Amino acid sequence: MDALNAALLVNWLGFSVGALLYLMLAVMVLRHPPDREGRSVTVLLLATAVLGLIWNLGELFVYIFRDFALGTSFPILTAAAYSALGFLPSVVVHSAENDMGGRRLLTPVAYTLSSVAAVLHFYSAMTGSAVPSGSALIILMFGAVSLIAGLLVFNFRQSLEQKMVWGAAMLVFVLSGTHFIATPEGNSWLVELIAHQSSVPLALVILYQNYRFAFADLFLKRAISVMLLAGVAFSLYVWVAAPLLRYHETHDRNDVFAISLILLLWMATAFAYPWLHKMAVWTVDRVILNRANYDDVIRQLASRTANAGTVGEILSTVSELLGDVLTANNAEWSEERSADKGIADGGVVSGSDRAEMRIITAERPYYRIEFSSLRGGRRLLSDEMAMLEAASHLTARRIDALRVTHERCEQETREQEFSKLAAEAQLTALRAQINPHFLFNALTTIGYLIQTTPEQAFQTLIQLTKLLRGVLSSTGEFCALGDEMKLIENYLEIESTRFEERLEVEIDVADELRTARIPALILQPLVENAIKHGISESKKGGKVSIAAAVFEENGERLLRLSVADTGDGRSVEPDEYRDGVGLRNIADRLRAHYGNAARLDLVRTVDEETLATVVLPVSDIGRRERKEIQASVAAI
To answer: 545 and 621, same structural domain?
Structure first.
């Protein structure tokens, strides 16, 4: 393929791709209506799309008719195309001064130069002179150089990177103007590409200056993908298809080899497109926009909020992390309790240099996170909107999970409080359960002793006072075994005064065990039941034995407390004995404190002896006593 044909192919391909890109930009602008704050930006983008379409479609139309040798030059269409190309630098200047803010000094000058050039193009077309007009191209070329200098002087607020971007695009336009003036029909395909496609860099600069609209990243990715695809297709044809087909010039027009080669190359470009699109996405995200990896951001967000203990901590973490990612100077969260429709609908709202993420939880209150003063006054892009949507859902679910956890903890706390209150109520009931018959009998005994043995009556009264004071004044759920035994000993001394020789008492509780902590009033009801059901029902009386011992079971040290009586037991069966209120309270309290680790057993032995046994884990026995107990257990 010679240079002229390569140049024509580049122009054909370039104008076709350019028309496609500008058409895509126009459709995206029209499908995304602006808000009130961003209307001027959208007007510039729409103007860019229209001017680019006029330039590319006009030149493509002229080239088509020229290649078909129809003999028509269409000077008016050519003038319109070059006029549209001449207005693109003015839009670049307008965009740059928009980004700078303040008074627009160079924008009117730029539009004036473009208008003058357009008038000269149409004047040449109507007078039969050469189109495009050389004078118009010279005005645009020197005007572009002057505008570059003016922007460098007046646009001091923009960064050096931004100045280099639009400065390079304007220089490409100047070079294209030089080409049109010197060699309207160049023979180099590279020169033709730079000259006739100078509108594309200008359009990309406008997008770069005004990438505040939400779909800028999508357009850039698609545009770069299309341009890369066109470049690959052109390269395959120039470097593969053309040399191979040159050796088959003598073959028939419908040569199978030529057709197969074209189809294979077409499939190769189709297979290459996904890789080209990935390259375009990487270029836009990492090079042009320099954005973070949003998948990593979401993972980092999930990791940071996983161990947060409060809703405020979650929202502060999210605000800080996303504020850094979005380059926001301010990121603040707030609570929303009202049924505002906007917050209830959820989602992400973007405005000029600000954005708002709405966090819709399962229950009120809802939350907002507002990001303001975005760097460069930009808007959110589509990928950023999608990232914020994902972050909003993640944050809402984290808050919901935290609320459920807190509710469960509060419920468990309430249940523990209720259980404690119930245990206290049971203990209070036990303290108040001192058998009225016992009190009546004790008082009757004291009254009898006052008449017969006043000194013994006084001692019995002292024992009764100690017993009542010990039972009613204690408020703790646990006590030492020794304290429990003092109450029981006082009780038995009173009962011994009443029953005299009919009651025999045996206590086998070692001193080293008296420091063990046990539930309060765990033995007294058993002793009282032994007196009531065992001794009082027997004419000959009986013996009450109380013992405490430590033993091992399944590798665990346990404390066994036993109360036995030798009454005949004929008046009460074991099941009836077991159904007493005091015994039920004992069983319930053991279950509440120890679960399955403690138990209450009630049996009738072969010796007609009723035996009540409480088994519970050993606790709070002194170190010295523990060693002695362990030694005694080992000896056994």
So the answer is: yes
